[in-house]
Amino acid sequence: MNTFIPVILSGGAGTRLWPLSRQSHPKPFLTLPDGENLLQKSLRRAAAIPDVQEILTVTNRDYYFQTRDAYDAVDSREGHRQLRYLLEPTGRNTAPAIAAAAWELQESFGPDTILLVLPADQLVQDLPAFLAAVEKARELAQAGYLVTFGITPGWPETGYGYIEAGEVLMAEGSVLGHRVRRFVEKPDLARAQSFLDAGGYSWNSGMFCLRAGIFLEELANHQPALSRALGQVLSHGRRQDDYLELPQSFAQLPDISVDYAVMEPTQRAAVVAGDFGWSDIGSWSAFGGLLEADAQGNQVVGEVVLEDAQGCIVHSSERLAALLGVEDLVIIDTPDALLVARKDRDQEVKKIVAELKRRGHESHALHRTVHRPWGTYTVLEEGPRFKIKRILVKPGAALSLQMHHHRSEHWIVVSGTAKIVNGDEERLIRTNESTYIPAGTPHRLINPGVIDLVMIEVQSGEYLGEDDIVRFEDRYGRTPA
Amino acid sequence: MNTFIPVILSGGAGTRLWPLSRQSHPKPFLTLPDGENLLQKSLRRAAAIPDVQEILTVTNRDYYFQTRDAYDAVDSREGHRQLRYLLEPTGRNTAPAIAAAAWELQESFGPDTILLVLPADQLVQDLPAFLAAVEKARELAQAGYLVTFGITPGWPETGYGYIEAGEVLMAEGSVLGHRVRRFVEKPDLARAQSFLDAGGYSWNSGMFCLRAGIFLEELANHQPALSRALGQVLSHGRRQDDYLELPQSFAQLPDISVDYAVMEPTQRAAVVAGDFGWSDIGSWSAFGGLLEADAQGNQVVGEVVLEDAQGCIVHSSERLAALLGVEDLVIIDTPDALLVARKDRDQEVKKIVAELKRRGHESHALHRTVHRPWGTYTVLEEGPRFKIKRILVKPGAALSLQMHHHRSEHWIVVSGTAKIVNGDEERLIRTNESTYIPAGTPHRLINPGVIDLVMIEVQSGEYLGEDDIVRFEDRYGRTPA
User: Fold this and answer.
1) Does chain B have fewer CB atoms within 10 Å around its N or its C terminus?
2) Half-sphere exposure of B287 (CA within 13 A, CB side)
3) Mean of pLDDT values over A359-363
4) What is the pLDDT of residues B381-414, one digit of tens each?
5) Given an 8 Å threshold on Cβ–Cβ distance, is A341 in contact with B324?
6) Does B384 contact A at CB distance below 8 Å?
7) Tens digits of per-residue pLDDT, A23-79?
8) Nearest one of B157, B158, B160, B159 to B149, comparing CA atoms
């Protein structure tokens, strides 16, 4: 059998799930009520397919460490598979991403390699049905089809594209799928309803199964310019450890979808029915659907007091929320931003994000907790001439050897052990011990232990911006060339 | 002219203004949109009356320091008047409070002293009209009447008691007020409407003007038991500095209102019209009324994004709030609790507070920032075995000399200068310096400077409760006897 490689496409800001999903922490990283995020669920889904030895993830290079951290938590449960990454300098829609994946895997395993493309911001709730559908798609891909997965519409959704099925495709007396008659872009409500009434239409899920060589051939036929440019770009990638970092020129490739670039023009498109409890969690209502409702239809995460509230979705993990006499609201509370929206308008949350962007408010992009290769930091408080952070360093991780011109730092270890380089001195600081780093002193923070190191940092100085940092040495490649 | 003393009655939890108003920080301390709180406004109102040399405040002893701090900010603008306090061990309704004030002022200035009783949780927007009404009330009190202030009803409110006016009281050809025909307890809507239709009814504001001796006489006539018990209780008060602290036995006095105890049975009741822009800020709607509305009728404090929102009241001073497609909501955000309520149900906020009390949730009573005689502390973060506080010490103030059995403390000064006693050592710590207090070491923190001292305290230990404190010496009388 041909080599079979799941390709997880991870990206997209998910602005409709603000304020939990933000540019620095997009939808694939959104923790679901069961404690796992969509990216981890995608990995587990991919790993559950038989004969999968390796999984490729295409993501932005800014999310590389955060993605590895997320996978690490899953891998320990699911057994190790080879993980490989394609890192984009900037998101470039699905055609360049899938083409790059096909090119990379053709290089490694030959043109007959079959790719299963899985967007990381989707949820599949019926795993056996998913595996059965993948099996059918695999057979069709083997036979040379470019296979999409079509979701049987539950309602006349206007937020998805539709696929009209054509001639049935069988093998050994059983239906595998259908040829695609045509793709339809997001319809209006009347048209969507007519598709439901007519039958034979399904939602375009964005999942694909295809042979690398055939996909690249079709790309060359229908998008010759993109195809040629891609070869150029990929030959300049920087290969290191488990990833191929695509060069800055990747950002010049056309920003087009795989549907538009290949699936619509090709004669080889097929569709397999994907009735496996699919959802793209495209709104807070969809998120609420993952939560059990109480007798009044309220779906709640966190400590909430409900006084005559009905049909509300509440996510408030760090603060008490009290509702009185309200109905059909979405209330999402985060440490630095609160959303209160009418439930049936939740598709418009992106308008809020656009307005925040216009105002230059950092909550459109950043969370108060910021992920770094070595762990996280959370700003607890800022004031004139001081800033307080909680810093978490993963076991074995280290911050860069660095220096600040304008601020000094007090460090107090509240959990774990820190190895500190402070000027010429190097020493261990244990729980409940502290040290002081004067401005202008090169210093480094390392967690030499096997449990998380948690530290409180109190910064003091006339300028406390994150850009007052001189990095001398960094194991995550963040020193200037 | 008789001595004239404004008496500010400060107390009451103001549960309808949760989560901003709480037991530890009740309605009189609520900061209004103009930056001043109701208590400060009450003081300024009292101080604006001609010939006022002294002002008495009756409050709970827990609010003594917080009250003085609030007044200090006003005094600097308004010129100094003698301030005196009656401190209750527990709130006991208006009859015991006003009786205690009358008794105390009769002791000091004789029975002819005129008291002007002002509840501290009310707002008066037309000061000249207020002063004119007080002048009339003063004349009537002088003549022996127990005078109430009646507010001309703007609508058939069911939340207030009503006063029916009787025979007109004149002096030198002009109307001073009326005798009171009767007091009516909170009516239902139909009855309230009938009062409006009939005319001659006003809202009972809870403000009074009366002569100490006459009030105490009437109290003895109509509440002989309370009158006798009061004398007993007051003789055991502890007089110190500028206050008389009432003994614990005060809590055994009957919990009755002055209306019920004296005003209703007496033949000396009079009412003066109080058309001076009175409000008791009894709900979030009333609070919203103090804010300018935008074109969509939204009344907002803080950084708020409004996307098609109408008629909402939003108070979010520390976090961004985004509203989408909602109308007529009250949204009040605080560091540890959020309220989202339908505006026309805002009288029911007290139900939320009752539920929190039932659950034992501390947000019904405490704010994250806690007031102490020496300043404030704010818990920034709590975790296993650590707690981080921001501590603000007022100029010249000092914490008690204390010791903890189970926790050590790191102190970092971020603003101002600290004088620190740490075991046998005493030294100054300046901005950006730190010190360490091991568990079991007696220590003390003093602000010797003239600006606020702001410190970050990182506590570490196996038990971090506020009750792990041994006080050796305290200038605020908090050491065990």
Assistant:
1) C
2) 30
3) 82
4) 888 788 999 999 999 999 999 999 999 999 999 9
5) yes
6) yes
7) 888 899 988 888 899 999 999 999 999 989 999 999 998 899 889 989 988 865 565
8) B160
Q: Using H for helix, E for strand and C for coil, what is the string for chain B? A: CCCEEEEEECCCCCHHHCCCCECCECHHHCECCCCCEHHHHHHHHHHCCCCCCEEEEEEEHHHHHHHHHHHHHHHHHHCCCEEEEEEECCCCCHHHHHHHHHHHHHHHHCCCCEEEEEECCCEECCHHHHHHHHHHHHHHHHCCCEEEEEECCCCCCCCCCEEEEEEEEEECCEEEEEEEEEEECCCCHHHHHHHHHHCCEEEEEEEEEEEHHHHHHHHHHHCHHHHHHHHHHHCCCEEECCEEECCHHHHHCCCCCHHHHHHCCCCCEEEEECCCCEECCCCHHHHHCCCCECCCCCEEEEEEEEECCECCEEEEEEEEEEEECCECEEEEECCCEEEEEEHHHHHHHHHHHHHHHHHCCHHHCCCCEEEECCEEEEEEEEECCEEEEEEEECCCCECCEEECCCEEEEEEEEECCEEEEECCEEEEECCCCEEEECCCCCEEEECCCCCCEEEEEEEEECCCCCCCCEEEECCCCCCCC
The verdict on a CB contact (< 8 Å) between A385 and B414 is yes
User: Shortest CA distance to A354 belongs to which of A365, A368, A340?
Assistant: A365
| B338·A333 Cβ contact <8 A | yes
CA-based nearest distance B97→chain A, Å: 34
Would you call A342 and B355 a contact, using CB atoms and an 8 Å cutoff?
A: no
User: In the predicted model, is pLDDT for residue A304 greater than 90?
Assistant: yes
Does residue A80 register a pLDDT over 80? no
Q: Does A408 touch chain B (CB under 8 A)?
A: yes
Helix, strand, coil percent values for chain A (each to nearest 5): 30, 40, 35
Partners of A391 in the β-ladder: A377, A455
Cα distance from B115 to chain A (closest Cα, Å)?
Answer: 41
The full length of chain A comes to 481
pLDDT in tens, A181-193: 999 999 999 999 9
Percent of chain B with pLDDT over 70: 98
Whether residues B412 and A410 touch (CB distance < 8 A) is answered with: yes
Residue A13 has pLDDT above 80, yes or no: no
Beta bridge partners of B151: B203
Least confident of A441-445, B10-14, B402-406: B10-14
Query: Would the pLDDT of A139 be above 90?
Result: yes
- For residue A409, pLDDT beyond 70: yes
Which residue ranges form the domains of chain B, and what is each CATH number? 4-279 (3.90.550.10), 291-363 (no CATH), 369-473 (2.60.120.10)
C-alpha–C-alpha distance, residues B286 and A12, integer Å: 44
Q: Do B338 and A352 touch (CB under 8 A)?
A: no
Interface of B with A in 184-243 (CB under 8 A): none
What's the complex ipTM?
0.85
Residue B86 has pLDDT above 80, yes or no: yes
